[in-house]
From TrEMBL:
Biased segments, Polar residues type: 110-122
Span of domain Ribosomal protein/NADH dehydrogenase: 40-157
Pfam families: L51_S25_CI-B8
Record's keyword annotation contains Cytoplasm: no
Keyword ATP-binding: no
UniProt keyword terms in alphabetical order: Coiled coil, Mitochondrion, Ribonucleoprotein, Ribosomal protein
Protein name: Ribosomal protein/NADH dehydrogenase domain-containing protein
Subcellular location per the Swiss-Prot or TrEMBL entry: Mitochondrion
Main location: mitochondrion
Native source species: Apiospora phragmitis
Amino acid sequence: MVNPGKRMNILKALLNLRHGPGAAILPPEISRLHMDFALRWNDGHLGPRKFWKDCLPRLKFWNPAIPMIVNRSTNNAGPATLSIYFRQAAAAAAAAPTTPAGKGTHITPLAQQPHSSTTNECTAPPPEEGERVVTIEMKHQHSDYILAEFLTKTGATVLRPSPDELNEMRQTEDLRERAAIDRSIMKKYIDDKRREENLVARAREEAEAIRLANQ
């Protein structure tokens, strides 16, 4: 059985993935996303990097069927762009869910989706027939600005936590704070105990030294 601490960490990670910046449902006309930025954060690539780390995982969680490719390189002087590919209306209608549960959606299995690259091997492809592409220039932009532009240009539906999830989030935060207090108390107890043991050991050494000197 998983202990309460591990359960709390798992629940916190799941809630963090489900909600926060980037938690949104993309409309069916979005066919794929492509990010292009440098490996290192300097020279204007900090915002794109933060968007990639904080927002993209949530977008992927809520939109697993949409390929989201990240191409990175060592060229910090190069651009940082987010490309959004749109299907034509007819193709988007064919890809739309036919039931509330999403059955009937044209899903690209993860194993068949293109892979990302850290060696500049997966640059943004040109739009295919029946596609158009909208680009967001991310360089020197804050991640909040990038997300706002992305939501505006895609028309994505932002998701909010339910009352039950908000309660769970508050509970996990309370548990985290209590755990931090407990760790602090335990650390102080251990430090005090070690200090006391060191004092006792030093007193014994001094007593032994006095005893040997008086022989």
